[in-house]
Structures are given as structure tokens and as C-alpha cells.
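[recover] target loaded
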């Protein structure tokens, strides 16, 4: 078991080393995509995003959760409707 862990660690180190060696070429390719007017604009924007995320750090993502009674009540009502529908379908299957 210890030998497998050692092999796994060595493999991870080799892969990381290989990726570090490829990083400059990858960055050059992204730069070429970003600056080539013949490349699809969506691909250019994605290349820009990748460069910025890696160079400046990806911004934290956040989710806004609306926490009010009206939203909760509407969600609860929809869940109740779905459960009632599921019970009806289950009952209909058993009646067949």
C-alpha cells in the first residue's frame, strides 16, 4: 500500500512539473487567440478571461439569496403542489 502511495505522489509531482513546463506555451497560445482578429470573438473573450483569472486570481463567486417570508411561502406552496402531483401519479399507478 505504501508503494502505491509513493507512486501516486511521484506521478502527481511529474504531472505538476510537466504542466509548469507547458504553462508558458499555453499562455502564449491564449495571448495569440486574444489578439487575433480572425478568431471568433467569443473565443477571444474566453481567452482574456482565462488569462485574467490565472494572472490576477479568479474573483470570488457569490449567490444572492432572497430571504423573505413571501419567497419561502411561494416555494413551500410549489413543493406541496409537486408532492400532491407525485402522490396522485403514484396512486394512479397502483390502481392500474
Amino acid at each position: 500500500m505504501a508503494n502505491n502511495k509513493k507512486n501516486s505522489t511521484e506521478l502527481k509531482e511529474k504531472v505538476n512539473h510537466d504542466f509548469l513546463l507547458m504553462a508558458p506555451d499555453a499562455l502564449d497560445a491564449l495571448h495569440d487567440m486574444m489578439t487575433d482578429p480572425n478568431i471568433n470573438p467569443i473565443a477571444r473573450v474566453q481567452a482574456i478571461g482565462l488569462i485574467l483569472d490565472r494572472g490576477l486570481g479568479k474573483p470570488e463567486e457569490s449567490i444572492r439569496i432572497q430571504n423573505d417570508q413571501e419567497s419561502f411561502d411561494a416555494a413551500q406552496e410549489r413543493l406541496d403542489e409537486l408532492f400532491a402531483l407525485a402522490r396522485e401519479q403514484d396512486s394512479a399507478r397502483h390502481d392500474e
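[recover] notes: The chain has a mean pLDDT of 82.
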